[in-house]
Amino acid sequence: MASDKANACLICTGRQPIHPITRLYRYAGFIEWDTGFSQMRTIPSPEVHFGSPGQTPGHLRDILAEQITAVPAGGTINWVTYYFRDLRLAKALIQAHKRGVRVTLTLEGRPRIPYANDAVIALLSGPDGLGEALRIVTLPGVPSPATKSWKPQLHEKLYCFSHPEPVAFIGSFNPSGNGPGDDPDIIREIGDQDCGYNALIGLKDPVLVEKLTEHARRLHQSPPGLFYRFTTDTSSDIHGTDTDIYFWPRTGAHPVVQFLCKIGSGARVRIAASHIRMESAVDIMAGLARQGVALEILAESTLRRVTPRVEQRLASAGIRFRRIHLPALCPCISNLY
Question: Per-residue pLDDT averaged across 298-318, rounded?
């Protein structure tokens, strides 16, 4: 439930009742609700992979590394991501490019820590790098004071592969770490998603894979301009067999808010989110609690993303609220980002 100033996407599953528990996923978190219906799936089930402090560090980046290796010459890899600091993954993309895989990588050029991606950019843009397959995007925006963050950013985490079977991974994970010996100053500031709480969801519905791959290639070929939010592409949501995907920025109502407005009394809603900032969403959740909806919220540990004011309002409404804190021995922060 973060700002809509960033390019990002939302995926809503269960437009028709598919399973006793269906899910709504936002790039910054998850919402889960009970439907009480069951129906046989007619499309391949998504792969859902979780990273956490309880697993070997690098679990999610290793999944991406395996996927890169599995794509043969003539296949395609299309990535869009915000942070990319993993030099080993960058080298794997270069090797794929050299063996004849058609690679596109679209990368945010001005993340919150401006120099965070510099080492990977230097490698990929070098003489033995990706060449024109690399696209560094800096989205135009309204000038803002140095103390304000009004700059739009490419906030997507999208990894599309043609082989060994077509799949499009979305989720909260981007390769923000660079293994042992990484820069501690950067890790303290942005966290290391190789050991934080994150997820990758591998979508296999042919419609979703095709449209998401087209989206990644379109961003690579023609990055969004200043008035992107007012173009047709902004409202070109993707509708799969049982899944809807929404893109940011958008001019219409927030899909999560629309979803919450449809929840009936007696329902049970669980939310895991890194960002909860929209006052309208907090108002709606508090109203649902008063109507008898059972809400549970797992929130990010940093107060910048979920403020104490939001926490107090939710708790005062009787909503079960808990922040995710990593073990003291883990050097990275919780990062459902």
Answer: 83
